[in-house]
Specification:
Largest interface: A-B, 42 and 41 residues
Distance between the termini of chain A: 62 Å
Number of strands of chain A: 13
CATH class of the largest domain in chain A: Alpha Beta
Helix content of chain A: 25-40%
Oligomer: homodimer
CATH architecture of the largest domain in chain A: 3-Layer(aba) Sandwich
Number of helices of chain A: 9
Order of helices and strands of chain A: EEEEEEHEHEHHEHEHEHEEHH
Chain lengths: 287, 287
């Protein structure tokens, strides 16, 4: 007897398809070669699928999170910018980031001697380490300490500990909503050292401009310095994506720190130009 | 009796949907509020649909060409960069651009006194002028001369005529394939004045990197100067899009020419940063 298909997949004319239904009025369907991994964790349904267009993809509760063809763009852009701003980052905290791609990028910095990666779902981390090597790089650097618990609670109990905190969250619906609240950014401020800085993804300027604006405002109210930058993330709706940095002291970047690093998307030119914002974003965040 | 639905649309649970099937392994479906316009021209099936996610969209043979929510990004980026490079553009040729968005942007330059817009399909131009005002701006500037014929043949018969030529083509399949051939770029070189320049869209760096690379190489072989830049076009696959400029003399831009212009996406910062290319593009085009 044939194994039952996961509820998120369907067969059409003999082909397997994943259809995302997260947007009420926009459906995206991916033709799938193979189901590489599928299991329920205590938190969500976890799949790694091999797709025709994007290669292997991490899919949580039926929604594509990252893919082999473009995962590196998001991961490089959320990681290297802040690491090139802090002059000597040693302790880095990653909240979320279960696909291991952010940790992989941070490991490229010799100055860093401890990376705490807090993700609630161990199954996601294990599935990506094993089945999504183009994103996770198989991550086995001994400087990475995996902590499988609630990132918000973990950060609340830290004080004056980290040089850089990277918030690699999913969208602000369901459990990730709290990662966009002001009280969360306040706990990050406390968890950072006196000259630390944080960065988070702040959603699509086109489809979630209210969230983007609110994130920028909330971080501005807490941190001494704030800046927004953008990147193109092809598999996210709208393509254009925003990131917000809150910093206690540093905001100048040293793009030379990137040289000799093996990257696919970011380079010295990109880090210099990513802070150039389109007119409609400038008007929204009024800087 | 109910009117028969256009073949590209279908009803699901009482809602109207457009499903693009141009990619074998990636289907995108848009929920549609209303069919604003629908007619067959001698060249293609033309629709203007009002969608929930992207507002009004121009749809040719079932494929979305431009939308109210993001059409301006593409049109501003293909128009203003070259107009800010040429120090005194007077005569501009647009090949394609039936949605009128490029012509609308060029009209923002007082120095320009003639805009020849050559598109084979009069019905597209009329539909967009009437039913897609957010993209076309209703275009009624007397400097615009509409010419409804084959753009390739039109350009072949011109010599030493234009300061700037903008090739706003669709993808290099079917009739638009010739707009990516070397002989076409040679005829543009001839049609330009001694200090003229041309710009074309050169496809997605992620999904059509071969076309992008080939376009850059072909233009490099003909023009004295060549440069590539990118922009985010949310409704195009991959989001990231490339443009290539071929110039006989000028390549420095004067971003101050943008000041006081009413734009939604481009500004002085964006024009300065759009030439910063991601690492994987630099490696492909070897500059």
């Amino acid at each position: 007897m044939e194994k039952k298909l996961p509820v998120y997949l369907s067969k059409k004319n003999g082909d397997l398809w994943l259809t995302e239904d997260e947007h009420e009025s926009l459906n995206i369907s991916y033709r799938i070669k193979n189901i590489i991994f599928e299991e329920n964790s205590p938190f969500q349904h976890v799949m790694v699928l091999d797709s025709y267009t994007f290669g292997r993809m991490l899919v949580l509760d039926g929604i594509v999170q990252t893919t082999s063809i473009d995962g590196h763009i998001y991961n490089e852009m959320i990681s290297h910018v802040s690491l090139c701003i802090h002059p000597d980052p040693k302790r880095v905290l990653i909240i979320g980031g279960g696909d291991c791609g952010v940790a992989k990028e941070i490991c490229k910095y010799d100055s860093v001697d401890q990376i705490d990666m807090v993700d609630i779902d161990k199954l996601v981390v294990e599935a990506c380490k094993t089945h999504l090597p183009k994103v996770s790089g198989g991550l086995s650097d001994p400087r990475v300490r995996f902590i499988f618990e609630d990132g918000v609670k973990f950060a609340q109990n830290k004080e004056d500990t980290y040089d850089v905190i990277i918030v690699d969250s999913s969208d602000p619906i369901g459990p990730a909503r709290v990662l966009f609240e002001k009280s969360f950014y306040q706990s990050l401020y406390k968890a950072l050292k006196g000259d630390g800085l944080m960065v988070c993804q702040s959603q699509s300027p086109i489809f979630h401009s209210e969230v983007m604006k609110q994130t920028f405002e909330r971080i501005s109210e807490i941190f001494e310095k704030v800046k927004m930058y953008t990147a193109v993330v092809p598999t996210y709706p709208g393509g254009l994506w925003s990131f917000t940095i809150g910093s206690k002291r540093y905001m100048n970047f040293n793009p030379a720190k990137l040289s000799q690093k093996d990257t696919y998307y970011i380079n010295e030119q990109i880090i210099e130009s990513c802070f150039s914002l389109p007119q409609f974003i400038l008007e929204q965040i009024k800087i």
